[in-house]
Amino acid sequence: MEESIFRSELMEWYQTSQRSLPWREAPNAYSCWLSEIILQQTRVAQGAPYYARFLETYPTVQDLADAPEEEVMRLWQGLGYYSRARNLHKCAKTVSHEMNNTFPSTYAGLQKLPGIGKYTAAAIASIVFNEAVPAVDGNMYRVFARYFGIQTDIASPKAFKEFFELGATIIDSGKPGDFNQAVMDLGATVCTPKKPLCDTCPLASGCHALAKGSQGDLPVKKKKIKVRERHLNYIVIRNGDKTFMRKREAGDVWQDLYDFHLIETEKPTDFDLLTDTVLESLIKTGASLADSSPTFKHVLSHQRLFARFYIIEAQGSGLDEILQNTGLKAYTDQEIESLAKPILIENYLKKYLDGRLLLA
DNA sequence: GAACCGTGGAT
DNA sequence: TATCCAAGGTT
């Protein structure tokens, strides 16, 4: 039977070919959960250093729950998708305060926690608690779509049901955690998106895509993202040895991270700048734009950002009044170092102002 | 159900 | 350079 061959060949391959990864050494609910959240939409190579730092800084879920949110966000800086960090902290507090520091032990129970969806719940439930639920992620879609020749658009929500049910019939119920990790390892190292290594694949003999030569067409994914262009004019307001920054709010990218006073324009910088009330008020006090940076190009998943930074030396008198209700607060260089900032801001501080604003 | 949310590496 | 996409989740 096709399904049993898939299972046995895959499990045998995993015994000799599994990757050696830090979170596989001594699996427990906390470390498994931590690794899964970090690895959402993130490559192993990028997430691994963060996993090590988080586990060292917060050895237990209670340590993470007791940490200040600002510290957690700062430790997450550079990983992206920052709602993961907020939910990570929220989840830790729930587990610590309402569950006696003990994670739920079931697929259903895990999904009730913030930041844990179907995939992550299945991964933890199978790896830590031996529950036989398939972990449907990008690797699983690819491996299964190719092997079984499934044409369903994986971007459509109904695809999940189809792959989940198929996975449930094939999963090794004796070692569900190994099975799920085997699918992921195969997808990551052999059945790769481009140029899959079919010559060395343990599932080659029964693979539909290999037989048809359709590896490049599977899985089917129709969704195309639209990329919006934005022009960001950052006003770096300085006063003595301090710089004004503000915490970004909900409704846009980089929620809860810190940046400078922002004037967004439809086009690259022009005299629209003068329509900004804060900037206008500052200039009235005698301050002037002292310096500007080259354009920084920064690419997000749905946006292309073009940013320029203008330094303005503000006067002490009247500053509080001008900046009230803007959310802007003054920070020393040392304080800025401890704030969570977008990579764009970090790049500006490091590469352009290095040795001038921040003492390296 | 579709859009949104980051960053970096590979091709 | 442009595109894809990586152990997804939330709204």
From TrEMBL:
HhH-GPD domain: residues covered: 38-189
EC number(s) given by UniProt: 3.2.2.31
Cofactor: [4Fe-4S] cluster
UniProt keyword annotations, A-Z: 4Fe-4S, DNA damage, DNA repair, Glycosidase, Hydrolase, Iron, Iron-sulfur, Metal-binding
NCBIfam families per the UniProt record, alphabetical: mutY
Function of the molecule: Adenine glycosylase active on G-A mispairs. MutY also corrects error-prone DNA synthesis past GO lesions which are due to the oxidatively damaged form of guanine: 7,8-dihydro-8-oxoguanine (8-oxo-dGTP).
Protein name (record): Adenine DNA glycosylase
Organism: Fulvitalea axinellae
